[in-house]
Amino acid sequence: MKSIPGLFAKMLPAVKASLSRFVGWLRSAPNWIKNIISGLAVNAIWEHIKGALGL
User: What does the DSSP assignment read for 35-47?
Assistant: First the structure.
């Protein structure tokens, strides 16, 4: 268990760099790609709400 904080510390810069590259790509992506990603996110949220409410 002592190695988990060390592992996390090593992974964090790579995760931040990957997120930064993804955000840069997303900003330059065409609108139709942004619309698809937004639609998928909204659909996932709606499915979770339906599941929580038992619909």
Answer: HHHHHHHHHHHHH
